[in-house]
Amino acid sequence: MNTLTARKMNNQIKALVSSAIFDVFNDPDFGLKLSAKAKKRLSLSSKNNKTISFSQIKKKYL
Question: Rounded CA gap, 23 and 16, in Å?
């Protein structure tokens, strides 16, 4: 592997790790637990197929 390729890969890895750390620290719900009520609602919506896929949400809002 040449030096330029190694540098590019190293920079990409640094950017990926930095992005992951940034995401964890900027998640306001990080470390919080779901309440019993929230778990029940998620379970019911999952059973009733009342969930919305990520791709549908993206289409609606992006």
Answer: 11
Distance CA 15, CA 62 (A): 24
CB 30 within 8 A of CB 24: yes
State the SS3 of 1-62. CCHHHHHHHHHHHHHHHHHHHHHHHCCCCCCCCCCHHHHHHHHHHHHCCCCCCHHHHHHHHC
Q: Where in the sequence is the domain holding 32, given as residue range(s)? A: 3-61
The residue behind tokens 């197929």 is 49
Structural domains of the chain, count: 1
Q: pTM, whole model, 2 decimals?
A: 0.41
Average pLDDT, integer, range 49-60: 83
